[in-house]
Amino acid sequence: MSNDIANLRKFVAPEIVFGVGARKTVANFARSFGARKILLVSDPGVVAAGWIDEVVQDLRMGGFEYELFTAVSPNPRAEEVMKGAELYRQQGCNLIVAVGGGSPMDCAKGIGIVATHNRHILEFEGVDTIEVAIPPLIFIPTTAGTSADVSQFAIISDQQEKMKISIVSKAVVPDVSLIDPETTLTMDAFLTACTGIDALVHAIEAFVSTGSGPLTDMHALDAIKLVNDNLVALVKDPTDLKLREQVMLGSMKAGLAFSNAILGAVHAMSHSLGGFLDLPHGMCNAMLLEHVIGFNFKSSEDKFRVVAETMGIDTRGMSNQMVHKRLQDRVIQLKHDVGLVEGLASSGVNLSDIPTLSAKAIRDPCILTNPRKSNKRDVEVVYEEAL
Ligand SMILES: [Fe+2]
């Protein structure tokens, strides 16, 4: 066994309540943090689905004051974070509850950072840039994929630069995550597919990441299996609560894995793409996944063989080349079965956009843990293949 401390890995996670009804405990947790006034962060879709009314009622019954901030865009923007932080300060809030998908949760993380540092959110790009503890965060995710409710990532859109910035810090892991599969019943089949594929990508990238270790591998492999075995059936019947629970458990485990092992080139490239086109994050990942696997395969053949086996491929007697092909085919099949068949070109990307997209992707922190070292030209070639 190696004594090299460079190989040691830490594992950070929020306090988690998982299961149907978990969301109903929000007032109890708010009380345990000594909340007086709560900033409730969400987006118009989640409000329309009725989840905010329910949380508001629970907080009122608990005797808490609250302020609503529900103007968050599908890819949360720096200006929205700044507005939310202003509201938090003006109203004298001392706790943040976010209800929704990755966007309200990432926005809530940003609001927490700005509220305690009093600086612009874009100044916090990168790893470990947060100096002061942020206010308590309680998250209720309503999608199963982004895992912002368990991760140490916040992704914010910079509209001026048409790009997304990544903030990576233990400080943005929420204090409590109330993961309730019932809340995902309001997602349609398309959003279910996008977020489910995002979870699968989290799990695969975390498993082959240079930051992976035993504590993350077990969650990553469970997540790959749970998504692989249940997502297609769920997209066919989005009302099946048992399937919702399985995919959400997979998403949570993928989140625990990638929050600690970090990600890879799919996410570096899809952050760049999502900032450029404002497309759903899971869809961006889906367009890139098999191409990045193709690029990475040789650098991590044994691990990709385990991924293939976990996705139901019997690899006994197969050469690495054959496993490579079968794994890519399986990914393409899965995407097809959940209805994600668009490529980059049909989504509006031109060959001439690729140098700009690549320049941004190689500056993303996720590229650092990709199993194969990649320069700008490598990334360009992968984008070209995905056109
Ligand atoms: Fe993701």
Set down the secondary structure blueprint.
Elements: E1 15-18, H1 26-32, E2 37-41, H2 44-48, H3 51-61, E3 65-69, H4 78-90, E4 95-100, H5 102-117, E5 126-127, E6 137-141, E7 153-158, E8 163-168, E9 176-179, H6 189-208, H7 214-236, H8 241-261, H9 265-277, H10 281-296, H11 301-310, H12 320-337, H13 354-361, H14 376-386
Parallel strand pairs: 1-9, 2-3, 2-4, 4-6, 5-8, 6-9
Antiparallel strand pairs: 7-8
Helix pairs in contact: 4-5, 6-7, 6-8, 6-10, 7-8, 9-10, 9-13, 10-12, 10-14, 11-12, 13-14
The structure holds fe (ii) ion.
Fe (ii) ion binds next to helix 6.
Describe the structure in your own words.
With about 375 residues, the protein is α/β, with parallel strands linked by helices. About 50% of the residues lie in helices and about 10% in strands. The chain has a 6-stranded parallel β-sheet with strand order 1-9-6-4-2-3, sandwiched between helices. A 3-stranded mixed β-sheet has the order 5-8-7. α6 packs parallel to α8. It starts with 14 loop residues before the first strand and ends with a helix. Bound molecules: fe (ii) ion (FE2). Fe (ii) ion binds next to α6.
